[in-house]
Amino acid sequence: MSEQTHTDADAIEYDETIELLQDLVRIRSPYFEEEAIVEFVYEWLDDAGLDPEYQPVREPDITGYEGDNVLARLEGSDPDAPTLLLNAHVDTVQLVEEWDEDPLSGRVEDGKCYGQGACDMKGGLAAVLVAFRALADADLRGDVILSAVVDEEGPYGLGANQLIRDGITDECDAAIVTEPGPILAQSELENPALLLGARGRFLYDVTVRGHAAHGSQPEKGRNAVVDAGTLAGALAEMDVGTHPKLGDGSVCPLSIEGGGETLSVPEACRLLVDRHVVIGEDAESVLADAERVVADLDLDSDVEIGFREAPAPDVRYGPYVTDEDHPLVRSLTASAESVTGQAPAIGYFSSVGDFNYFGHRAGLPTVIVGPDGENIHGAGEFVYTDEVVDVARILVDATTAFAG
Ligand SMILES: [Zn+2]
């Protein structure tokens, strides 16, 4: 790495950053309905002279989704220097109903900015945008690619998937994702914090087939709902993997659908079960685990276990861990300390997101560093405004060190 190039993280101004955050929060953008915010991000980058482009995201088979990511690139002076991906998602969950104010108010009070998606992750999106613009004035050897992606909160992470499909991640050597950090970590942490990995996730899709009979004579049938319930209980108790950094895997039965109101022994039903996994567990072993549980139960019904339908076999959330000694982690550690005055805590994410695609599928050393808040995905969601600014400054400083 060359000598530290001079870029002033103080180029990130509080007021302007938080005004941008408020603008972003005020744009309704649940997943699959991101047109307005995508256009806003494009225009913002374009107005800053940063040559953004739309990257079409298409998934015709399952969701019929058509949208666009926004990409922008800063070209470094040395083709051999590392390329860094800065990634944020633009979508939110659906607006929840329990808000006792406008869920898109963007109200700032006591250092908190309120709104659906304020913390997850318009705070991180604002930080990435202002950091990227500040980096345009830096003297970088490596490239920096900004990706503002759609559909992180949707079922398949189609925006990040498109980065992989189109080879964008092949050009990168490491990734930073500014998702909310500590609040979604496996352990209790506070910012500054770096999250260096995440568990993976599979969704068992189980069909249970029994045998119909008149409901007044249940002994003449095989009750698929009863067997699915027994199976759900057994799966919830099964042994799962453990990892020194990622912690334990977990299993959560999510739904049993089947049967009806007619007086019949239900002949079939569908059981969906979430399984979070750690490194060392893959599709094959996860399937084998469930099949062992089924074999041990010896149910009357026939059981067929698969995974949730996906746009392609590789569209899966695998687990990953980034090495604490990776140069990007070292750069972020030093920058977090210089910006906040505190050495960052190290943690691991509790669930899955686009970062799994970068860390696992694309094999990129991937770090989550993002502003914290509360009530994520719920009413009263907010992000701490000073942490949004801190994250932007950390991004500028660390990118200048890593790619400078
Ligand atoms: Zn998120």
TrEMBL record:
Pfam families recorded: M20_dimer, Peptidase_M20
Matches recorded under InterPro entries: ArgE/DapE_CS, Bact_exopeptidase_dim_dom, Peptidase_M20, Peptidase_M20_dimer, Peptidase_M20A
The keyword Nucleotide-binding appears for this protein: no
Cofactor(s) the record lists: Zn(2+)
GO MF term (any one): metal ion binding
Superkingdom of origin organism: Archaea
Residue span(s) of domain Peptidase M20 dimerisation: 197-297
Keywords: Hydrolase, Metal-binding, Zinc
UniProt family annotation: Belongs to the peptidase M20A family.
Protein name as catalogued: M20 family metallopeptidase
Organism (species): Halosolutus amylolyticus
